[in-house]
Amino acid sequence: MRFGRCPSGTMMGSVPRLWRSISQRMGLSTLVLAEQKGGRLDPSTAQAVSAARALGGPVTLLFSGRGLGGAPSAGAALEGVTAVLTADDEALDHQLAEPAGALIVAVQQRRSFTHILAPSSTHGRNLLPRAAAKLDVQAVADVVEVQGPCTFVRPIYAGNALATVETPAEGLQMLTVRTTSFPPAPARAGNPAAIEPVSAEELQAAKDASSTSAWVSEEVGTSERPDLGQARVVVSGGRALRSAENFALLEALADALGGAVGASRAAVDAGYVPNDLQVGQTGKVVAPDLYLAFGISGAIQHVAGIKDAKTIVAVNTDADAPIFEVADYGLVGDLFEVIPQLQAELAAAKAQ
Amino acid sequence: MRVLVAVKRVIDYNARVRVKPDKSGVDLKNVKMGMNPFCEIAVEEAVKLKEGGSASEVVAVTIGPKAAGDTLRTALAMGADRGVHVLEDGEVQPLAVAKLLAALTRREEATLCMLGKQAIDDDSNQTGQGLAGLLGWPQATFASKVVVDREAGRASVTREVDGGLETLSLKLPAVITADLRLNEPRYATLPNIMKAKKKKVDTVTAQELGVDITPRLKLVKVEEPAKRQAGVMLSSVKELVDRLRNEAKVI
Predict the structure, then answer these.
(1) Which chain B residues are closer than 8 Å to A145 by Cβ?
(2) If exposure means fewest CB atoms within 10 Å of the residue's CB, which of A193, A280, B140, B184 is most exposed?
(3) ipTM
(4) Burial of A340 (0-12, 13-18, 19+ CB in 10 A)
């Protein structure tokens, strides 16, 4: 049986029953590198589980870090998860690539999964390719569609083209998945998967690899707003905002809509907002229901990060700005006049 | 300390990408090519380390066809001391690139490898991590600040991660991949471009380095992404709010 002959064009989430039975007979089994922050399950894990389920085999989650809290139990309750492994140790604190990568290699050598998946976050992209090289696997990055156990679709050239690639049918396959392309796996009622720590030998591999790098410090944005990658509404600004202070206008609008604030590279480079708010090829890829772009011209690198938004609104003084080519609703005007009007209209609409 | 910096020749970041009608790939004929923007940042940082006295020599490396030699010359014009060109006409996937770079790192006895965080053509974001894994060296990806302490034999690197910044201390030798905000790459001046022509470039093949570069992933097809439906231009904020509520139903 060659999986390379998998029929193409099948949407994720509707994997034919035939495959699922073939997958199970072939002994497919998937490990998902789960993400948690401060002991809480990160939403990207449920989205990666959804991609893993599309492969067909049973799904095991691996949590590693220090102080995993309630994250493993939350992961064990996700639909499709059949087992949860935990590695809770000081050596894995802050998830440095060297010990965390060594852990993945040791877990794979002991348990022989057919697929290893990670969310395509900065974390997943840091770890997975390192472990893949050690396991002599060419990983597939940023998968947006699973067409079969060895056929995947991924964007290239800043999302200007979609490549369908086939991995070798034999041996381990490793992927990072673009989480905005997969719905989160729901939590199921009852029967959570069993949670079990990794073996002492597997943990030792991580400890042995932990001497070459050390975590020093972090600066974390302390926003009360929803996470940019997960928000239903994103309000974004570009260079036309003219100052950091003016971003308060966008923040107020974002709060009125229950959304997150984003920015173009120009706004980040100008120092108006920190770089973790950058949306685009080199920043975050978002897929909210509503994306509002204020004073953003719409360079291809920016559009690469917003193409999958359900509705795009663009407000710009330049009627020829390329952002209007991708916007569902465009408004030529000065954002400093439009934003207050928009807030007034929203308030009026709400009051009705 | 010798720094190895890897550069890739890619489509110019402003060029329009066209998918070939037969879906076999992207049409690169008559398209402007240049150094991958993240590689430029890596070269700049390597040259800065030399200017600051942390590095003694900067070796620029590229893997690709003959035309990639131009990209290597650009790195030399920016300040790299010499170049190594791994001459390969076919596709070289990130794992194979990492293996070639690992072989060169050992051959050149480099202490630090600088790469860009990703190439803007295949958008893989894997080579640096793979290289670090193969060498068994520590890695710092998405770097926005690098400080090398030669005496301590360590590099302090600030990384751009989801949600903020993180600072790590790596024991050298190490691999670092550059993010956008690490620096502003310099332009190669005409006199430096002329001088670069005299700098030494070694040409090798994957075979000579003992690396199997057979592609592991098979490209089935390349397609244009679905076009977004043409939108409408509105004339007032009132109309916008009405459309968002009653037509798009997103607020």
Answers:
(1) none
(2) B184
(3) 0.96
(4) middle
Closest chain B CA to residue A270:
B181
Q: Residue ranges of the domains in chain A? A: 25-209, 233-351
Peptide bond into A288 cis (omega under 30): no
CATH code where residue B182 lies: 3.40.50.620
CATH architecture of A233-351: 3-Layer(aba) Sandwich (3.40)
Cα–Cα dist B177/B166, whole Å = 14
Task: Tell me the CATH number for domain A25-209.
Answer: 3.40.50.620
CA–CA separation, B72 and B66 (whole Å): 10
Residue A279, annotated as binding a ligand: yes
Taking the CA of residue A29 and the nearest CA in chain B, the distance in Å comes to 20
- Listed as ranges, residues in chain B with pLDDT below 70 are none
**Residue from the list B131, B215, B250 with its beta carbon closest to the beta carbon of A290:** B250
**Residue showing tokens 């290239």:** A156
**Nearest CB partner across the interface for B168, out of A215, A319, A324:** A215
Q: For residue A67, count other CB atoms closer than 10 A to its CB.
A: 11
Structure confidence at residue B112 (pLDDT) = 98
What is the Cβ-side half-sphere exposure of residue A321, based on CA atoms within 13 angstroms? 26
Chain A residues with beta carbon closer than 8 angstroms to that of B93: 138
Q: Please give the share of chain A, as a percent, with pLDDT higher than 70.
A: 92
Helices A122-134 and B94-108 sit at what angle, rounded to 10 degrees?
Answer: 70
- Locate tokens 């509707």: which residue? A14
